[in-house]
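ok so I'm stuck.
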Amino acid sequence: MTTTPRVQAVMLVAWPSFLMAAVLEMLVFALVDPHSLQGAGGVFSELSATTVYSLAFFLFWAAIAAAGALEHWLAAPADGPRSRAMPDAHGH
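replied:
not stuck anymore, here's the structure
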C-alpha cells in the first residue's frame, strides 16, 4: 500500500496529537471532576460525565493538532512559492 505525501503529513500530525490529547485528558480529569465544572452558564453540570470527557478530548485533540499542523507547515522546506516571497537572512 502506498501513501501520498499529504496522507503522511496528516498522520504525522494526527497520531501524535491523538496520543497527547489522551495523556492530557487523563491528567486533567485525574484532578477535575466533570460535575464540578461551572463554566458556560452551567451547561457542563447538565451533561453526563462521559459527554464532558468526550468533548474535552476532542477539544484537546483539535488544539494539539492545530499546533502540530502549524509546526509542520512552518518546518516545510522553502522550495515552494513561499521561498520566493520570503528572502533569506542575507536578503537574497
